[in-house]
Amino acid sequence: MASGPFLRTDLKTMSIFSKIKNYLGEVKVEMKKVNLPTRQETIKYTLIVIGLSAAVAIFLGGLDFLFAFLISKFLL
Question: For a Cys staple, 37 with which of 33, 41, 47, 59, CB 3.0–4.6 Å?
Answer without folding.
Answer: 41
